């Protein structure tokens, strides 16, 4: 029996496109015979992971959980994508998304790259996802990943329909006082899609672009040049009201802002994140 080396595994993976665990099993069964291992892979109908890579995976679900520690709470959210919602809503896919989330939590991973590199039993999450792709018969990938931490973390997971798993997850970290309105804030984040917590968080390049657009638009509308700065200021305030969480009108009572909600309870919002299936970076 030939020794099943890393080089041998790499060779068969490159020639078949199968996942690492499938290759190891096939080589073991074939007692190290490469030709026989390739036959076993073909016989089992294991699709080449490489062939699936070109297919877009924009459906899926988002698994999330709050983890408590002596320092407070941390919310974790991990998007797992598939090609179709048919696969995304299967119990096995949802269960696998929870498994990947568990690996991310164990590794304290906060980025997609860190999740993929996390340990998954005797492999990595990246390899486990490749194996799952063979099982589900679709391109499967880890998408967006987010974490927020604070004295209190609230998570709201939204389902677009009862038969589908969560497709939008919003998380917000607050101080203890802010916990009283954290659920309402999480609902707001899910529904209105704020991009930043406060206006000071908006990147300068974004502000410059918005000001430039507002100025050019005002001039194109024929507004007198001397009043353009005031019009631009008004349009920037409208931009903040749309994109900044604490300045958004509260959906359940537009007479107040989300910031007012926190003021009423003497609380503070510290950070938030919103993930929506299929809205991450393009493949």
Automatic annotation (TrEMBL):
<dbReference type="InterPro" id="IPR001816">
    <property type="entry name" value="Transl_elong_EFTs/EF1B"/>
</dbReference>
<feature type="domain" description="Translation elongation factor EFTs/EF1B dimerisation">
    <location>
        <begin position="76"/>
        <end position="279"/>
    </location>
</feature>
<dbReference type="GO" id="GO:0005737">
    <property type="term" value="C:cytoplasm"/>
</dbReference>
<dbReference type="GO" id="GO:0003746">
    <property type="term" value="F:translation elongation factor activity"/>
</dbReference>
<comment type="function">
    <text>Associates with the EF-Tu.GDP complex and induces the exchange of GDP to GTP. It remains bound to the aminoacyl-tRNA.EF-Tu.GTP complex up to the GTP hydrolysis stage on the ribosome.</text>
</comment>
<dbReference type="InterPro" id="IPR009060">
    <property type="entry name" value="UBA-like_sf"/>
</dbReference>
<keyword id="KW-0648">Protein biosynthesis</keyword>
<keyword id="KW-0963">Cytoplasm</keyword>
<keyword id="KW-0251">Elongation factor</keyword>
<dbReference type="InterPro" id="IPR018101">
    <property type="entry name" value="Transl_elong_Ts_CS"/>
</dbReference>
<dbReference type="Pfam" id="PF00889">
    <property type="entry name" value="EF_TS"/>
</dbReference>
<protein>
    <recommendedName>
        <fullName>Elongation factor Ts</fullName>
    </recommendedName>
</protein>
<feature type="region of interest" description="Involved in Mg(2+) ion dislocation from EF-Tu">
    <location>
        <begin position="84"/>
        <end position="87"/>
    </location>
</feature>
<dbReference type="InterPro" id="IPR014039">
    <property type="entry name" value="Transl_elong_EFTs/EF1B_dimer"/>
</dbReference>
<comment type="similarity">
    <text>Belongs to the EF-Ts family.</text>
</comment>
<dbReference type="InterPro" id="IPR036402">
    <property type="entry name" value="EF-Ts_dimer_sf"/>
</dbReference>
